[in-house]
Amino acid sequence: MNETVQTYSDALRLAAQKLARADVEGPLRDARRLMELAAGMSTTDLIAEENTQIPLQISAKFSAFIQRRLEGEPISRIAGRREFWGLEFVITSDVLDPRPDTETLVELVLSEWKSDYKNVLDLGTGSGCILLSILSEKLSAQGLGLDQSEKALGVATKNAEKLELKQRARFQNSNWFDALTPEQKFDVIVSNPPYIPSADIEVLDIDVKKYDPLSALDGGEDGYDDYRHIISKAKVHLNKNGLIAFEVGFNQAEKVCELLENEKFIHINVRKDLSGVKRCVYGYASSV
């Protein structure tokens, strides 16, 4: 912070004041989290060391973290990891930062999972958080995650290794279904595709538009480009009675339901998140 800072407590107080002046929500909470990262301490350790002199190396690292937070970078991005579905995922600038709302999609797939389902395809897998969370609960299932970004696939592979799911999760470079053969079919297809209309990107919160990859956000002129593409080709790769499930943006559920109806999917429905927002749309392939 500056040369007069002597203790962890001093550094936390001054950092929280800076964050508060910048209208960062929860300034002391964020300051403590960033100090824990900088010092490699647990919350308990930091409380015990609050009146201890802070080493210069840790002080410099903490100051750099605070500056990044002042510029709008989320804590998860600074830390390089995010908790999702009770699991810890590595994240980088190459993948979307998983949001709690997306856990609704995982919950939906698990609740609709039939006893004879054996495999799942995750389109636009990013960090792998959706696929790996499902596999962590369905212990006999296999999964394939597709993404057009090789760097994102590297992150997903690292997460599969970290979570000891590498034996049941594979990752492959592909623009949606392009790398698959018609013979490759799945019981579940899941996706959180880009769904922000192009013109709306600029007005997104800074923690989204500056730190999430544009390719994971931009859904074309009306936000539905990738839904149209996926839904038009999904039946080739979905087994009979198979489940297809999407996360959708605000006020997009009705249109995505319509797209599924047009392709003759059945039992189409919507799932709300904990805030009551229509967060997911799903349907089934017919049995014939």
From TrEMBL:
PROSITE patterns: N6_MTASE (PS00092). Substrate binds at N192, P193, P194, Y195. Gene3D superfamilies: DNA helicase RuvA subunit, C-terminal domain (1.10.8.10), Vaccinia Virus protein VP39 (3.40.50.150). It comes from Hirschia baltica (strain ATCC 49814 / DSM 5838 / IFAM 1418). Methylates the class 1 translation termination release factors RF1/PrfA and RF2/PrfB on the glutamine residue of the universally conserved GGQ motif. The keyword S-adenosyl-L-methionine applies. Keywords: Methyltransferase, S-adenosyl-L-methionine, Transferase. GO terms for biological process: methylation. This is Release factor glutamine methyltransferase. Residues 116-192 form the Methyltransferase domain.
